[in-house]
# Entry
Amino acid sequence: MKFFVDTADLDEIRDLASTGLLDGVTTNPSLVAKSGAKSFIDLIAQICELVEGPVSAEVAATDYQTMLKEGQKLAKIAKNVAIKVPLTPDGLKVCKQLSDAGTMVNVTLCFSSSQAILAAKAGATFVSPFVGRLDDISTDGMQLIRDIVQIYKQYPAFKTEVLVASIRHPMHLVEAARVGAHVSTIPPKVIRQLYSHPLTDSGLATFVSDWKKTGQTILNAA
Ligand code: G3P
# Structure
C-alpha cells in the first residue's frame, strides 16, 4: 500500500519524508488555508521538491472552463503534481481532458460507488473516497472502500487507484490495507500513531536495561 500524507504543512512533510516511508502528499483548500501559506503555487512547488511521488493540488473553481485552466496551470509546477478535481459533472469533464493529456488527476469528494465508477470512466489516476466523513454521519465508510475495490477488480480497463481519504485513526488504514486499497492518505498525527504499541515500549525498555547489566558496548568492543 502506498502512504500519502494528508497535509499542507511543510515541516510535517519534511519530517515524515525523512522516514523514507512517504509515497506522496495530498492537499486540499482547507489544508492550504490552515497552513497559512501566502502563495499556493510556491507551496506546491516546495512540496514537490520534498517528495518525489504524486502531490495533489486542488483546483479552486467549480466551473469547467476555469477548473481546466487552473488545472493546466497547476500541472506546470512540477512533473509529480496530481490535479485534484471535485466529483461533479464539470470536475469529471476536466478529469477526462487532463488525463487524456497525460496529467495525473485525483478525483476527490467521492462518497458512493456510482461516483467511483464515473471517476474511473473519466480516466482518473486516483479516486478519493472519504471514509471518515461517512463514519461521521453514521454510515460505514469502509464498506464503500470494499465495494469500490471489488467493482474495480471486475474491470481491468479501469486504471484508477483507490486512494482512501478522510482517515481518522489507524484502524481505517489497517482495514483499507486488508481490502486491498492502493493508497491511503493519512494525517501526520495518525501516521505517528501507527508506530505506537505499549508492548514495544516496555519490551525495548527491558532490553536496554538488561543490556546495561552486561557492562558491554558494541562500538567499543574489539
Ligand atoms: O484531503 C482529503 C481528505 O483526506 C480530507 O478529509 O475529512 O479529514 O477533511 P477530512
User: Anything to note?
Assistant: The two ends are 43 Å apart (CA to CA). Residues 6, 26, 28, 128, 130, 132-133, 165-166, 185 surround SN-glycerol-3-phosphate (CB under 6 Å). The chain has a mean pLDDT of 98. The chain has one domain: 2-210.
